[in-house]
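[step 3/7] inverse_fold.run input=structure_tokens len=370
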């Protein structure tokens, strides 16, 4: 195995007699290791030095001796080794696949042995994080002549782990007010954090809770935004805002105004008469809501005579584009009187002769009836 010679060889001082013409020629000098295997302090055999000049025939040359050098193991590159991106899990381990040797000389007996175990310097989320590996070694009769270098350019992306708000929040029912605004209460709890990582919902989060739309309805979805994470490990996580919250938007009761009930004279009926022009109180903004009185009726609590008797109104309904967001409050207190009915009774004129029995008395109902 060829060794590279460096430096300038010279003749031993005093070896040439007088002014003899003798010169050392190194043009054919060569060095060879005793074998090709890697090793330190290996003997090198030198040949090829010879003498020239008119007096060279009177001399002999001894080739250099006791030269040593090292044959360093060749570094083999691992190619085709790839890493798999992962979601933050608090560990530095990385899954590696593939891997073949590149750079083996000729038919040298060298194989790759073991299973590659990858790792990153720290477990934190990040992109293009350098990956190192262990667990691989070289085997084969010529393996001592080689070393295994780290595979170049292996990197991994560790993406933040999603956390969810698992429990602790409720949405509150409300009466229709024309807005999507919702109210939530409770303390949110995180689900999914790794081990003892210090991460929690920022108490200074500015949150917004909105119904899917402003209309009245039951079990309406409430969308929450604005929660943020804080804590030493917060950068390793993302937060999924709360889901599965719902509440009711209840129809807003509208009050009926502008109607009065008329008092009446007793007539054996509980039917009452309404007066005035009905209007609605409590409509939100420019909502289109109107009152239908096509089937309206009013009745006293009973048909008997009395003062300030309650009058119940029925048959009213709401119409218009926004009618579904309202209910009609018909409990407005209407009262009226049922006064006694006057009846006039006139006695029939009668006469008799003195000493006779009184005649039978009779009468006539001249007003009303009995």
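[step 3/7] decode complete -> sequence:
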């Amino acid at each position: 195995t060829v060794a590279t010679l460096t430096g300038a060889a010279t003749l031993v001082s005093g070896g040439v007699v007088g002014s003899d013409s003798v010169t050392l020629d190194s043009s054919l000098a060569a060095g060879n290791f005793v074998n090709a295997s890697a090793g330190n302090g290996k003997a090198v055999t030198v040949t090829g030095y010879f003498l020239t000049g008119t007096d060279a025939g009177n001399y002999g040359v001894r080739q250099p001796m006791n030269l040593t050098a090292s044959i360093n193991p060749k570094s083999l590159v691992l190619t085709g080794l790839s890493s798999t991106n992962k979601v933050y899990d608090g560990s530095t381990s990385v899954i590696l696949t593939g891997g073949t040797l590149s750079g083996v000389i000729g038919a040298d007996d060298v194989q790759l042995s073991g299973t590659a175990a990858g790792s990153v310097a720290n477990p934190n989320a990040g992109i293009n994080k350098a990956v190192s590996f262990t667990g691989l070694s070289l085997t084969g009769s010529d393996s001592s002549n080689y070393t295994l270098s780290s595979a170049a350019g292996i990197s991994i992306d560790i993406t933040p782990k999603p956390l969810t708000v698992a429990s602790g929040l409720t949405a509150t029912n409300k009466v229709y007010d024309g807005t999507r605004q919702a109210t939530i209460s409770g303390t949110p709890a995180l689900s999914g954090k790794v081990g003892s990582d210090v991460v929690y919902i920022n108490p200074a989060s500015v949150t917004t809770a909105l119904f899917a739309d402003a209309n009245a309805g039951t079990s309406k979805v409430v969308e929450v935004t604005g929660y943020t994470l804080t804590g030493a490990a917060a950068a390793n996580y993302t937060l999924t805002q709360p889901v599965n919250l719902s509440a009711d938007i209840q129809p807003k009761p509208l009050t009926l105004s502008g109607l009065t009930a008329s008092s009446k004279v007793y007539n054996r009926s509980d039917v009452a008469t309404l007066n005035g022009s009905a209007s609605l109180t409590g409509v939100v903004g420019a909502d289109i809501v109107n009152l239908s009185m096509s089937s309206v009726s009013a009745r006293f609590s009973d048909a008997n005579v009395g003062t300030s008797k309650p009058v119940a109104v029925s048959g009213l309904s709401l119409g218009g584009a926004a009618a579904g967001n309202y209910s009609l409050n018909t409990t407005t207190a209407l009262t009226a009187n049922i006064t006694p009915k006057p009846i006039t009774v006139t006695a029939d004129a009668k006469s008799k002769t003195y000493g006779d029995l009184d005649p039978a008395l009779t009468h006539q109902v001249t007003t009303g009836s009995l």
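[step 4/7] annotate
The chain has four domains: 2-71, 75-159, 162-250, 252-338.
The mean pLDDT is 91.
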